[in-house]
Amino acid sequence: MAEVLSIAIFDPLPGSDDEALATMRALGALMAEKGYSRDRLYRDPDSGQHLLLRYWTSAAARREAHEDPQVHAFWIRLSELIQTRTVYEKLDDVSESANRHGV
Q: What is the dihedral of CA 55, 61, 64, 69, to 10 degrees?
């Protein structure tokens, strides 16, 4: 099964930076524990925007996570802590190495 890459770009709401990041990290830990995905969280030092790269283990894992009440609880909490700028739900790998290997 091929991983599915999603990217979210977001800003913590004023005064919620620490809690937003802690919540995002806790969600990432839950997602990894359940085998749904592995996450990488980045911050642009110039704009202050955050980028979450989520590597879903499969499309099926992504669907399962979307139905998981524990995941939903985190997403509800995050909606109170961050402003989402952009979400890319599924990105296709079009790099030369991916094409060479038939991905």
A: -40
